[in-house]
From TrEMBL:
Gene name of the encoded protein: ASRGL1
Active-site residues from the entry: 173 (nucleophile)
Enzyme class: hydrolase
Protein name per UniProt: Isoaspartyl peptidase/L-asparaginase
Record keywords: Autocatalytic cleavage, Hydrolase, Protease
Reaction(s) the record says it catalyses: Cleavage of a beta-linked Asp residue from the N-terminus of a polypeptide; L-asparagine + H2O = L-aspartate + NH4(+)
Length: 315
């Protein structure tokens, strides 16, 4: 019998220039999500269950651009993307341009488990949700005052999308990666996209190998940042490949972010966990809130170089 692995989860809340007024809430949000996902793992749950739980919590948190709190596209509507992937089977499910759904990550899991497909988009994704009896929520329930202000600011100044991550109008993706006691890894990523994106624009988040990737033979990865740049270098699969070549989780994350910057001048971040519970966190934006929970201890940070630590709350 194979030795039991140490359950580990890593969560991120998006790589961008997070304003000071929501920085504390962003850090608290990823810690809460990571601790909830870790509780799933230590209760015997799978890595898939853990990443879905963590991302659902972030989708419910208005601070983050996923689910409730999603940004507005150029028409002033919300279109959301999400993916979940199982590293044991290499099966994945994703949705893109879905509307009026509170938890796109859970809809993505249903795509993986209840269809023969990997991705369903737009009206088809909403029809699938309706078939499953998933309730629709009004757009106003998903949109925050901050998202509306960002949309108005964008329309006022007409900044280029690739400038948003260095401004305070960017907002971005959430994600989680985990390994369970059986050594199986999983990942999940969810986003509302970029403020004032074109209607129908799909970024990296729901694309396998770009916004997320999971393989028990290498690692689970979730990405965040400028979607077009991430897709150009298939960032999640690049991290996984670097680990297959012998790099540590942290070295693979750092090398992949540097490669994206050098090749396409891309900005963003990644989180990674291996089947042995080795973790990595890397980003080249001003901030990215992240948290790692392992052995009852949570490590977390948001600004470059930060690595705080504390014990997880007891039940």
């Amino acid at each position: 019998m194979a030795a039991m692995k140490t359950p580990t989860i890593v969560v991120h809340g998006g790589a961008w220039s997070i304003p000071d007024e929501i920085a504390e809430a962003s850090q608290a949000g990823v810690k809460a999500a990571a601790e909830a996902g870790y509780k799933v793992l230590t209760s015997g749950g799978s890595a898939l269950d853990a990443v879905e739980t963590a991302v659902r919590i972030l989708e419910d948190d208005v601070v983050f651009d996923a689910g409730t709190g999603s940004v507005l596209n150029s028409a002033g509507d919300v279109e959301m993307d999400a993916i979940i992937m199982d590293g044991q089977s290499l099966r994945a499910g994703s949705v893109a341009c879905v509307q009026n759904i509170a938890h796109p990550v859970s809809l993505a899991r249903q795509v993986m488990e209840k269809t023969d497909h990997t991705m369903i988009v737009g009206e088809g994704a909403n029809l699938f949700a309706k078939e499953l009896g998933i309730p629709q929520v009004p757009t106003d329930q998903l949109v925050t005052d901050i998202a509306r202000q960002q949309w108005e600011e964008y329309n006022k100044y007409k900044r280029a999308v690739n400038e948003l991550f260095d401004s305070q109008l960017g907002h971005d993706t959430v994600g989680a990666v985990a390994v369970d006691s059986e050594g199986n890894v999983a990942c999940a990523t969810s986003t509302g996209g970029i403020t004032a994106k074109r209607v129908g624009r799909v970024g990296d988040s729901p694309v396998i190998g770009c916004g997320a990737y999971a393989d028990n033979e290498s690692a689970a990865v979730s990405c965040t940042g400028h979607g077009e740049a991430i897709m150009s270098v298939t960032l999640a699969r690049t991290v996984s490949f670097n680990m297959e070549q012998g790099a540590s989780a942290q070295a693979a994350a750092d090398k992949s972010i540097a490669y994206m910057k050098n090749r396409v001048d891309g900005t963003g971040g990644v989180i990674v966990v291996s089947g042995e519970g080795e973790t990595g966190v890397s980003f080249n934006t001003r901030r990215m809130p992240w948290a790692v929970v392992r052995d009852g201890t949570v490590r977390f940070g948001m600004n470059p170089g930060e690595n705080f630590q504390k014990e997880c709350p007891k039940d």
